[in-house]
Amino acid sequence: MKILVVCGAGASSTFVALRLRRSATLRGLTVSVTAVTEADLPARLSAAVTHAPVDVVLVGPHLAPAFPAIAQQCAEHGAQARLLPVTIFTDRDGESALDLVQDAMGSHP
């Protein structure tokens, strides 16, 4: 499963991506998680189409005003987009982010 975590500058998404990888490993899931900036997202989605398509894009809560446009971009490339809750930065184990991914993929228990 290929996941992108998007934020404005890439700093906060890096922490979310790290925790998400850890949580996925503990659940026995194989994932590729990459932190990207909002500006880099279109290029990442386009490049992924020819290589390994993106399954889910998690969007930082501070990008909520831009979320509809981001979700549209993702849909055009076959990816599910989910807006992260404002509490995501206090989620120390990555469980809530992984739950969002699994909900997007229709595989949450």
From TrEMBL:
InterPro entries: PTS_EIIB-like_sf (IPR036095), PTS_EIIB_2/3 (IPR003501), PTS_EIIB_3 (IPR013012), PTS_sugar-specific_EIIB (IPR051819)
Pfam families assigned to the protein according to its UniProt record, in alphabetical order: PTS_IIB (PF02302)
Gene3D superfamilies on file: 3.40.50.2300
GO biological process terms on file: phosphoenolpyruvate-dependent sugar phosphotransferase system
Molecular function (Gene Ontology), one example: protein-N(PI)-phosphohistidine-sugar phosphotransferase activity
Modified residues annotated as Phosphocysteine in this record: C7
Domain PTS EIIB type-3: 1-109
Record bears the keyword Translocase: no
Keyword field: Kinase, Phosphoprotein, Phosphotransferase system, Sugar transport, Transferase, Transport
Protein name stated in the entry: PTS sugar transporter
Organism: Cryobacterium glaciale
